[in-house]
Amino acid sequence: MAIGDKAENKGENLGGKVKEGTGKATGNESLEAEGKGDQASANLKDGVEKVKDAAKNIAGGDKNKH
Questions:
Q1: Which is more confident, 2 or 36?
Q2: In 10 A of CB 9, how many CB atoms?
Q3: What's the whole-model pTM score?
Q4: Per-residue pLDDT at 37
Q5: Taking the CA of residue 9 as centre, how many other CA atoms within 13 Å lie in the half-sphere pointing to its CB?
Q6: pLDDT in tens, 12-42
Q7: Contact in structure between 14 and 41 (CB atoms under 8 Å)
Q8: Quick one: how far is CA 62 from the chain centroid?
Q9: Burial 30-41 (b: 16+ CB within 10 A, else e)
Q10: How many CB atoms lie within 10 A of CB 21?
């Protein structure tokens, strides 16, 4: 996973946690839901990057065996 992508995903996740917490503290259900959505999006992107990395490792490993 590219370091920039990883940092961006972590930042999005952190921002989502802040939004969620602010929404809870102020009783703003919309902001809380938006924060949860941001976290879910960041986690999904992180998962996709991990799958890409795994695919690259598998492809690279196969080349070394031949």
A1: 36
A2: 20
A3: 0.79
A4: 98
A5: 17
A6: 999 999 999 999 999 999 999 999 999 999 9
A7: no
A8: 28
A9: ebbebbeebbee
A10: 13
Q: How far is CA 60 from CA 47, 55, 65, in A?
A: 20, 8, 9
Contact by Cβ (8 Å): 18, 42 = no
Q: How open is the CA angle 51-10-16, to the nearest 5 degrees? A: 115
Task: Say what percent of the chain tops pLDDT 90.
Answer: 74
Residue 26 has a CB neighbour count (10 Å cut-off) of 10
pLDDT score at 20: 98
Report d(CA 7, CA 50) in Å as an integer: 14
